[in-house]
Design a protein that fits this description.
Blueprint lengths: L6 E4 L5 E6 L2 E6 L11 H21 L9 E11 L6 H6 L23 E6 L6 E10 L5 E12 L6 H19 L2 H7 L5
Length: 194
């Protein structure tokens, strides 16, 4: 047989997808209906633990060996719709703290019509790297979006459990999101309460 490339396993409601690859086991949530609300971290993580446990048990029963993770990753992707009534750069300033076009005092260049950036931060105790990636995109209906992809990735280690690593990564994503985005964006776009 050819080597395993990628297999998708869908939950009954089609909202959760397990992706199996040679070196990866991913669980993703996806929006199926317009009214779907993103589940909280605890719900998704519990589904991940259940799926990982079932897959590990299968590998043992099928004599495939004991599965030992060597790397962990947690990713959140946020779509920020750009209203466009103030111009791209001003709209961006109202959403992302680390972008202030007015403050650079440009003498020649007009305000940008698109932007992207990547920031990386070291997580504590050598647990990995937190990466925030901001990019400009357009929906099929030509609506401008900012895509804020926040990810923690790091090595598995005997110094901490899988749950401890994911709890740290979740905290970094939540608190990193708060540090990188404006309170206006947090309150109006995500209705953040704490």
């Amino acid at each position: 047989m050819p080597p395993l490339r990628r297999v998708f396993l869908l939950s009954g409601d089609q909202r959760y997808v397990v992706q199996l690859q040679d070196t990866r086991f991913n669980l993703n949530w996806r929006k199926v209906d317009a009214g779907d609300v993103y589940p909280r971290f605890g719900v998704v993580f519990a589904k991940f633990q259940k799926a990982w446990g079932a897959f590990s048990e299968f590998a043992e029963v099928a004599s495939l060996g004991n599965l030992i993770p060597n790397r962990y990753e947690l990713t959140y992707v946020n779509h920020l719709e750009m209203k466009g009534n103030q111009g791209f750069s001003r709209d961006l300033e109202t959403k992302v703290k680390m972008f202030k076009w007015e403050g650079i005092g440009a003498e020649f260049l007009p305000a940008p019509t698109s932007a992207s950036s990547v920031w990386q931060f070291q997580m504590p105790d050598a647990k990995g790297i937190f990466t925030a990636n901001l990019s400009h995109a357009k929906r099929q209906d030509a609506t401008d979006l900012l895509v804020l992809n926040m990810s923690c990735a790091g090595p598995a280690s005997s110094r901490y459990s899988l749950k401890e690593w994911f709890d740290t990564a979740h905290e970094w994503i939540v608190r990193g999101f708060a540090d990188l985005t404006t309170s206006e964006a947090q309150n109006e776009l995500w209705e953040r309460t704490s």
